[in-house]
Amino acid sequence: MSEKPKLELFENPKPDRDYTITINCPEFTSVCPKTGQPDFGEVIVEYSPDKSCIELKSLKFYMQSYRNKGIFYEALTNEILDDLSSICKPRWMKIICRFTPRGGITTSVNAEYKKKS
After folding, report:
1. Could you tell me if 62 and 76 are in contact, meaning their C-beta atoms sit under 8 angstroms apart?
2. Which of the two ends of the chain, N or C, has the fewest CB atoms closer than 10 A to its terminal CB?
3. Active-site positions?
4. Which residues of the chain have pLDDT under 70?
């Protein structure tokens, strides 16, 4: 997939309440831009919705669009945060990307978004 699939939303059933949604994508795959080798890991999306929630099937296709994309962990984490926060406009959002060991080293990258008051 060369183009990212469209992320779909649905109306928050309790917009007057603060609550947290946690989505775990444990089989995430992308490609190392230096070696061309696959990178495996998990992506965790935590957010407090405002007016909209992220529909999971569209999120699954969005995550799969990275399968053949060469991207560094840091850029990936921030790109996912930018894409998701810009579409659903949550009260806050955190993206945690944890990658499996490569050469005996594990990497975890976290990025956060907070809605401006």
Report:
1. no
2. C
3. 32, 39
4. 1-2
